[in-house]
Structures are given as C-alpha cells and as structure tokens.
Amino acid sequence: MTILTTELADKALFLPREERAELVEKLLLSLNVPTQKEVDQLWIEEAEKRVNEYDEGNIEAIDGEQVFRDIRDRLKR
Asked: In terms of residue numbers, what domain contains 24?
C-alpha cells in the first residue's frame, strides 16, 4: 500500500461502524462488485425460478439426505 492508502485506511478504522460500512459499499461499487442487495435479489430470482420449474414438473426434488450422501461419496474419491 502507498503511504496515502495506509493513512486513509488508518483513519477509516476510527469511523463509526455504519460509516465504515458505507465506505466499504462505495469502494466495492467502484470495483463493479454486486452489492449485497443485488446478490440477495439474484438469489430470490433463482429460488423463484426453481420453485416454478418444480411446480411445472420440469425438475424433480431430491431428498436432502440423498444429496449429502452423494456429496460425501464424491469427496471420498
């Protein structure tokens, strides 16, 4: 880190939690990283899509215990 970056980081650590969170959000936005709100919305859309596919009979549900057995079996290989 540059001296300026180090100084900014040191000062930012003394900000109240809410202000630090806002600063982080702004910095992440500058990197084109999706916000938590955007990620949450994407998960909501994915969940709704999967429920609709299930309701329409396009996909079948798999028992959770079976899913975990399959994962354990794959990890043993």
From this structure: 1-33
